[in-house]
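User: Please predict the structure of the protein below. I'd like the answer in structure-token form so I can feed it into my own downstream comparison script.

Assistant: Understood. Taking the following sequence of 483 residues as input:
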Amino acid sequence: MQRADPQAERFLDRPYASVQLLLLAAAGLLGFGVLMAVSTTIAASHDATGSNAQSIWTQVIKEAEFIAIGVPIFWFALRLSPRVYRVLAYPMLVIGVAALVAVLVPGIGFGVFGARRWIDLGPMQLQPSEFAKVGVLLWGADLLARKQQLGTLRRARHLFLPLVPGVALVAALVMLEPDLGTTSCYMLILLGLLWMVGMPWRYFGFLVSLIAGGMLLLAFSAPYRWQRITSFTHPFKDARNTGFHAVQGIYALASGGVFGVGLGQGTSKYGWVPNANSDYVFAIIGQELGLLGCLAVLALFAVFAYTSLRVARRSADPFVRLVAGASAVWICGQAVINIGYVTGLLPVTGIPLPFISAGGTSLLASFFVLGMLVSFARHEAPAVSAARRDERLGRRSRLQRWLRIPVPKQYAPPKRRASVAVAGRRRPVVPSNRRAAPRTAPTPAAKPAAKSAPGSLRQASARTARGATPLRATGTDGPRRAR
């Protein structure tokens, strides 16, 4: 039998495998977003005449602007260390809550179709609820990580307080806009954090039931939301009214077949599928790129979820584990909700498809989360060891040169501070990561090198002749005199 070449390593065993997988998934999803932005712009160009011909490329220009802003955000997030993210948790939460309050103030926030969700900054409009997601994610992870290190998560009240009330407060501000779809994303972040921290199943089931009941109650409070809930099971009964969105999405997916009708050749985006560039962009992918295009999108999201959970599993820091796992639940859960209502499996909620839908603020938040996950991935122990080895040898890998990734320092998660009583006082003691070196008895050979080895041996022999008892080591507790 021919043995495998020891020089050939599996891809997942490489030190930068997590970084490469994250970049591959994000680049593929972003590529689909750019293609769909161009495709839906082509649809607008066929109907544009006269003065409207100047604005047919507005969508592509906006997409390019947000990508140009998102790349520096990704670069900034990539170079931060996990400790810095813990420091930024509370400031980002405060800024996010303040922005959610500001958007409700007349003159600062502006609304479209009865919803006040955006802040006008002149050349672009930002949606504060997307940035607040990142603040809630970091704050919740830092809170649970501290409690886990202190050993206080054994009681139910420490699991729920103050995390659940805090997330509920932020979700209430979002519902004042109103925006039920974004509120469901906050619930995904909450469930992802509690799932990663290891909440017992009985508590987890109770919380899921409570969230589902609250969402149904909020849907029942508005007639148009309740119509979406009741019509998604039989959308063809009222295909021209309450079931119009679901029916047109299904028609667009069915007309694509296996290979699709071709990029830019779809007809459903010509006024049939509503919000073809944002909420129902997956339907346009299914029509123009077919089943293969839909499977490619699903595969890229699966790679993103797997890699995020891989980063969480390979990290020793509870904060990194919580953030990486909850990010996977948030991003991929939001994608599942979007694809679910496009295919008619879930009620229509109107949330964007991450990295693909034409939503500027959502794209910027996704860039930040991607940079944060890549930062966590490059602080994995194999990546740090490889970077230090390459630095000693005076070389850098292709990925490090391309991204200009600095050599990360050895990152150790913060540990709980112990305390010992010293002279009536309690002095804090920080446990060290390094194992204490065994104590050894001083030998003549350990003295300064000015004396030669034969002289040292003669001194040892003279000591033995004078009756000195030889020393012998007894494990890690240090040497003891022989009896």
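That's the full token string. Confidence is low (pLDDT under 50) at residues 4-8, 47-54, 416-483.
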